[in-house]
């Protein structure tokens, strides 16, 4: 049996339903979202695909299931905020905030697996009308934008690269090539012909400093829109730079070391993400984000040094380098409540 199966058996269910591209829900505008109405002992979603969070008396809630009348608080972001790694819904960050560390108001899980900042914002825009009064929004994010900024400009476009983008652009290029061979009238009424070939795509990868600049600019651009929306709703907004194992400490806990080594044999983390996983990269990235947040008037918290101070050398909190164990979710939720003044 693998270390991953022995130490984190819940990850097999995430891989089966939430990693498999055959089970991804391809959605217009958003590109993709979680399986809707999914039920298991590990993860449950409502009819829209939002994960259920759990309160102090066992009550469960999501955007389309048992929605409180309000006011509510939102934890937005990508897979870490969604709770990949938790052995059950009650062990995610929104659930620990609601049930234990900041229980004065319900917390909704408003996160999207593998989303970048564009998708995080769109997810909120597309579903905001369903929400009651929102008192607080905590945007727990940051790594995906930086990781995706390593891709060439040809796939980053104007709004940043997204996961599975090579599949998307490949399919679109096949469709474009097919339509070039056709004739007749196209979608918008113009005559369709062969037309010019698509220009050659630049595959140059940016250097580390440029990656940080690209990720910071995109994150802050979208954060400014979050700020405008939050102000209009009368909600407090905080941006939290999420922890990464290699941003938190140099030496992982013993269980983490076994898991990381096993995962690296399948897909080498260093080869995929390069220098952005270093402590110095996190410091540069965090500095740019903090400066931008101060300019926008948005509260900012880099949770990496906060988490580092709270850990002992043998404390096991990561199931992989970006997602938490149940104990990790509990610890991080408590740190969020303490440092953001949540009650």
From TrEMBL:
Q: Name one Pfam family in it.
A: Lipase_GDSL_2
The name under which this protein is listed is SGNH hydrolase-type esterase domain-containing protein
Q: Which domain of life is it from?
A: Bacteria
The UniProt record lists the SGNH hydrolase-type esterase domain at: 77-331
């Amino acid at each position: 049996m693998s270390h991953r199966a022995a130490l984190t058996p819940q990850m097999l269910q995430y891989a089966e339903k939430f990693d498999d591209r055959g089970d991804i829900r391809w959605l217009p505008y958003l590109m993709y979202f979680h399986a809707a109405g999914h039920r298991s002992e590990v993860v449950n979603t409502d009819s829209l695909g939002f994960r259920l969070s759990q309160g102090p008396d066992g009550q469960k809630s999501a955007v389309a299931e048992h929605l409180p009348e309000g006011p509510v608080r939102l934890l937005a972001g990508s897979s870490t905020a969604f709770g990949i790694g938790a052995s059950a819904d009650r062990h995610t960050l929104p659930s620990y905030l609601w049930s234990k560390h900041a229980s004065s108001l319900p917390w909704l899980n408003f996160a999207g697996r593998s989303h970048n900042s564009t998708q995080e914002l769109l997810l909120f825009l597309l579903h905001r009308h369903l929400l009651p009064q929102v008192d607080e929004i905590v945007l727990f994010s940051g790594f995906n934008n930086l990781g995706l900024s390593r891709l060439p400009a040809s796939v980053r476009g104007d709004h940043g690269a997204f996961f599975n983008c090579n599949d998307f652009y490949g399919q679109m290029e096949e469709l474009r090539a097919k339509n070039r061979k056709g004739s007749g009238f196209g979608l918008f009424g113009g005559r369709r012909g062969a037309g010019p070939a698509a220009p050659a795509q630049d595959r140059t990868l940016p250097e580390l400093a440029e990656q940080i600049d690209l990720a910071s600019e995109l994150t802050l651009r979208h954060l400014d829109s979050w700020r405008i929306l939050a102000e209009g709703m009368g909600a407090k907004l905080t941006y939290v730079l999420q922890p990464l194992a290699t941003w938190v400490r140099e030496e992982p806990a013993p269980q983490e070391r076994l898991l990381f080594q096993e995962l690296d044999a399948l897909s080498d983390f260093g080869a995929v993400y390069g220098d952005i996983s270093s402590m110095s990269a996190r410091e540069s990235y965090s500095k740019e984000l903090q400066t931008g947040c101060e300019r926008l008037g948005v509260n900012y918290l880099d949770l990496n040094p906060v988490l580092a101070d709270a850990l002992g050398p043998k404390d096991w909190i990561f199931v992989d380098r970006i997602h938490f164990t149940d104990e990790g979710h509990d610890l991080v939720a408590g740190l969020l409540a303490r440092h953001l003044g949540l009650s």
